[in-house]
Amino acid sequence: MKIIHSNPAFVAPSIGAHYDPTWLVRLARKQHPTVPGYAQALARCVRVLSVEDNYIRFEKYLPVIFHRPTGQPGFVLEDPQRGLTVVDLRRDGKVSGVEVTGVHVTVAQMLALRKKFLEETGQA
């Protein structure tokens, strides 16, 4: 195991290692109670395919599906210790991987910043 970046709350697992997704499942159930498929998909993330920077890949890459109106793939979880965690979903409903950003901002704040950026750059 190794610590990634300067986010001490994120310890990267070894490639091929068993992974315990309990913390992700708990957050998904709490933050997305109307979408039980999120927690179910995360519960199946038990084997690490690869690790890059602060991204853990669980499945081979396939085009992701879009659940959020912002056009961002997958969904976001807010964790007080690890910061925002972005979950990428494949079209078959499996979790491709998770990015533990270490950024401590709420989803609402992130969306407001994105909206402001799009407006300022004429992309809104």
Q: Summary?
A:
This protein has helices spanning 22-31, 36-43, 107-120, and strands at 2-3, 11-12, 50-52, 55-57, 75-79, 83-89, 95-100. The protein is an alpha+beta fold and 124 residues long.
Keywords:
124 residues; alpha+beta; two-stranded antiparallel ribbon; disordered N terminus
Descriptive overview:
- By secondary structure, this protein is α+β, with helices and mostly antiparallel strands.
- Helix content is 26%, strand content 23%.
- The chain has helices at residues 22-31, 36-43, 107-120; strands at residues 2-3, 11-12, 50-52, 55-57, 75-79, 83-89, 95-100.
- Strand 3 (50-52) and strand 4 form a beta hairpin.
- Helix 1 (22-31) runs antiparallel to helix 2.
- The chain is globular, with a radius of gyration of 15 Å.
- The termini are far apart.
Low-confidence stretches: 1-9, 64-72
- Sheet with the most strands? 5 strands, antiparallel
Cα(first) to Cα(last) distance is 42 Å
Helix content percent band: 25-40%
The averaged pLDDT comes out at: 78
Strand order of the largest sheet: 3-4-7-6-5
Q: How many strands?
A: 7
Question: Would you list the SSEs in sequence order as H and E?
Answer: EEHHEEEEEH
Overall geometry: globular
The fraction of residues in strands falls at: 15-25%
* DSSP helical segment count: 3
> Rounded to an integer, what's the Rg over CA atoms?
15 Å
Oligomer: single chain
Structural class: alpha+beta
